[in-house]
Design goal:
heterodimer; A: 108 residues; mainly beta; four-stranded antiparallel β-sheet; 11 strands; B: 121 residues; seven-stranded mixed β-sheet; globular
Chain lengths: 108, 121
């Protein structure tokens, strides 16, 4: 199984900050990577697929990059509604589909 | 408008079999390439993929749980059913169903609200 490792697991930031979350795959996955945002008590929401393609309706302050084994999710100007947990997911090879362990973005 | 909704028991006893139903609308699971997955999340923990069924009735399972899982679909009812046998307290989690629009590249663009299943005697 392809293991997805996110870093950091959590951090604090302020509104207006530029933040970057990293996701590393245990083997190359080309660009078969998605990012999700999850708020407490809610289902995950798709933000980005194919490593860098923004899902319809997602604000342009979110962006994704990377290919192979190393990927990043960047929020260019953190808004109050962006405080949440973020997950990456590989879909290059399955079964199994695999998610990262999550990165919680908290208010500083 | 695509929607998915999970239903099933909120509480099951250890060793029992869990049956969850995902009822969806706004798309058809007979459409080429379409798929539906089950994903779970223990309280305070990360997401874990469980199973996937596609438009062609191909089925895929978590490596670690495959002996306990069965996924099936009823296209006429727009439903996908997951059964998990021999439930244990560690299976306590919120269970989600989610749509993948491309089975060859299954990321999930629509999710149900989730249903919390507690395993306890």
């Amino acid at each position: 199984a392809i293991r997805m490792t996110q870093s950091p697991s959590s951090f604090s930031a302020s509104t207006g900050d530029r933040v970057t979350i990293t996701c590393r795959a245990s083997q190359g996955i080309s660009s078969y990577l998605a990012w999700y945002q999850q708020k407490p008590g809610k289902a995950p929401k798709l933000l980005i697929y194919a490593a860098s393609t923004l899902q319809s309706g997602v604000p342009s302050r979110f962006s994704g990059s990377g290919s192979g084994t190393d990927f990043t999710l960047t929020i260019s100007c953190l808004q109050s509604e962006d405080f949440a947990t973020y997950y990456c997911q590989q879909y290059y090879s399955y079964p199994p589909l695999t998610f990262g362990g999550g990165t919680k973005v908290e208010i500083k | 408008q695509v929607t998915l909704r999970e239903s099933g028991p909120a509480l099951v006893k250890p060793t029992q079999t869990l049956t969850l139903t995902c009822t969806f609308s706004g798309f058809s699971l007979s459409t080429s390439g379409m798929c539906v997955s089950w994903i779970r999340q223990p309280p305070g923990k990360a997401l874990e993929w469980l199973a996937l069924i596609d438009w062609d009735d191909d089925k895929y399972y978590s490596t670690s749980l495959k002996t306990r899982l069965t996924i099936s679909k009823d296209t006429s009812k727009n439903q996908v059913v997951l059964t998990m046998t021999n439930m244990d307290p560690v299976d306590t989690a919120t269970y989600y169903c989610a749509r993948g629009a491309v089975v060859a590249a299954p990321y999930f663009d629509y999710w149900g609200q989730g249903t919390l299943v507690t395993v306890s005697s």
